[in-house]
User: Fold tetratricopeptide repeat family protein from hydrothermal vent metagenome.
Amino acid sequence: SLALERAENDDAAAQTLIGTIYANGLGVGQNLALASSWYAIASQNGDIAATFELAQLYQNGTGVPKNRQRAAELFNIAAEAGHREAMYNMALLHVEGIYAEPNLALGASLMEKAAEAGLAEANYDYGIMLMEGVGVPPNQTLGANYIGVAAQFGLVEAQVEYATFLYLGKGVEQDRAEAILWYMRAAEAANPVAQNRLAKLYAVGEGVPLDLQTAAMWRSLARRQGLNDPGLETLLISIAPEDIKRAEERAFYWPGETPDERGPGASVLQQSPAVQTRLINRP
Assistant:
């Protein structure tokens, strides 16, 4: 192919493309060892995307023997060239202090750069660092702002955190109506913490209409993901049996139509989003 011809003529971008083709099995059999070879060549020729991809392979031990020290070295090269995911990973490595120099201030600086480059996870983590004063002077207002940006990007855990800040007035002006909207977004994305908190609000009618049946529905959804809250059980102790039954039906068919509207069918309960690995694995 043209890409292979260019790769064999030392075109770094083409070499990275060939590496990606083999890494993902795009039209060819997946071959991570061959992908790593092409990434290594492209990296040597100065392609930063290839350097980052090669670092990931060493980080995970795919296509090459697992070597987190080598991964850190490659992440650092890419970070110094301005690769935002590499900056994020190096920030975490500096905070961890095992495969990179223990340096909270440097970690915070890199995290800020990755956040300013538009990486949702970096906005969230830098916000937490500001809230807790990790590597930077504590600043709840600025921290809440970064976490709010991450929430706007769609990072569900940030949406839950930001909702809590709004609800409590922590780092932001208290706005419980907006807090409930953020809890709702996260709950609809199948976050069990948000579902549990919505259940409590409906159980007491705080910021939303008092509705034990809806509270029980959100409780059921959170329970399915392993979140049990004795305090919520106490709030729902007076719920009528028919409301419990209806709540379970609504949870079974959530999200979407009720059984009466759609008829019997398989559950469409959304699965909980995968927990962030805290090492970005995609460019």
In short: The two ends are 25 Å apart (CA to CA). Residues 191-273 form one domain. DSSP finds 16 helices and no strands in the chain. Residues 140-153 form the longest helix (14 residues).
